[in-house]
Amino acid sequence: MATATVLSRLSLTPNLSSKPKSFSNRRTTPTTVSVRAQASFSDPFVLQLAESLEDSLSPSPSPSLPLQRIRDSSAESLLSTPWPSRRDEPFRFTDTSFIRYSQIEPVSTQQQPNSEILDNLTETHFPNAVIIDGFVSNLTIAPSDLPDGVYFGSFSGLPDDLANRVSEFIGDFDSGDLFWSINGMGAPDLTVIYVPAGCKVENSIHLRYFSGQTGDRESKRLPVSNPRVFVLVEEGGEIGIIEEFVGKDEQGFYWTNPVLEVVVLKNAKVKHSYLQQESTAAAHIKWTFVRQEAESEYELVEVSTGGRLGRHNVHVQQLGPDTLTELTTFHMCVNDQTLDLHSRIVLDHPRGSSRQLHKCIVAHSSGQAVFDGNVRVNKYAQQTDAGQLTRSLLLKPRATVNIKPNLQIIADDVKCSHGAAISDLEEDQLFYFQARGIDLETARRALISSFGSEVIEKFPNREIRDQARNHVKSLL
Predict the structure, then answer these.
(1) Per-residue model confidence as pLDDT tens digits over 84-110
(2) C-alpha span between 220 and 85 (Å, rounded)
(3) Per the database record, which ranges form the SUF system FeS cluster assembly SufBD core domain (predicted)?
(4) Cystine design at 404: which of 229, 372, 410, 427 (Cβ 3.0–4.6 Å)?
(5) pLDDT digit string (tens) for 170-210?
(6) In the chain, what's the furthest Cα-to-Cα distance?
(7) Dihedrals φ, ψ of 457, to 5°?
(8) CB 183 within 8 A of CB 173
(9) Judging by beta carbons within 10 Å of its beta carbon (0-12, 13-18, 19+), is residue 32 exposed, middle or buried?
């Protein structure tokens, strides 16, 4: 039989929290930290990994000050963090041991795009970048694609005034977990998207990530790449960001460890589309960290189907009143794989709003889905409207889903709700189809397809909707 675990938590806490968080634009002078200078460490494996990350970085040209600052702070946190195990609560249902016991090799050389790589990527009419193993290898922008003042490229190419402005926010995010630090230490470059105040970018920017180097499962050689992107949208600006992850072949053995940081200033809007279609033998562990100021909007739509292990950590902080956050995600396991969403939304100011819908399908007897969604409504977030719903379909015997919706309320004037539902397809719905002459297999396929279409239809671009829909249909 299928397995489901639901750990639901609704926490009502007295008003003992601290004051609302705010942006801190302090600048710090970077100091180079060598991992070999550390006197002691509790996890020799992580120390060895840190050394290999340090060795993989090109000594010239010297990195930009913000990138060096990220590397230094990440090295410090990495060397104080052991490799996670199932005994750690955030990884209670997520087994990372196949990465731990592989021979991890950071990708150190940039590969140029060729016909083999480009054939694996879908055509796109958007301004786009092909990011191969963490390196930006192909940037395609027509003169009319982006308005004046919008920047899309490496941090090293920023004009001095924009570099100073962007640097105010880089490295000012709360720390993530070990994988966040691995990316910060191993990122070969920092890709920047900058939108000036009041600018509404009509064409979405398409980031196409490709894993070109693959390892070998027999020897357990596992190449790891660490792409990192930073987005800053000034007051009143609007933009759409599309992230697409694909591998070289369906059985490619590699590890993609990306980070996306987004700063959405007052009254700005970001629409974020995310498609994860990695190899079924790969690892994909991604961090998305978003900071929103007053009256801003951030919308994420995600469809994830790839990876032997796929995990998305989404952290959103609302740092101003009248702020809107929407997370809409769909995970589908059709192989022996684990797909995991860990989300955290922190509301710190009045009249904030958050909406989260997570759907998953497990259609393999060894497949597993994990959802850990935390919404925290702090003391000063009065008149908050927060809703969270997760729905799961288990279609095979021994298919597994572990869900943990978590709503923590410290404010006392709020409208909040959360819910969870886990089931197979409903017999009444199947009977409805069969009563109209439709065979059982066709009825099941139609119901499964429609289950995910609620999320797919939320993609703002028709091109991405069609791509996601066709991909899900091909898997079914």
Answers:
(1) 999 999 999 999 999 999 999 999 887
(2) 20
(3) 223-451
(4) 372
(5) 977 777 899 999 999 999 999 999 999 999 999 999 999 99
(6) 73
(7) -70, -10
(8) no
(9) exposed
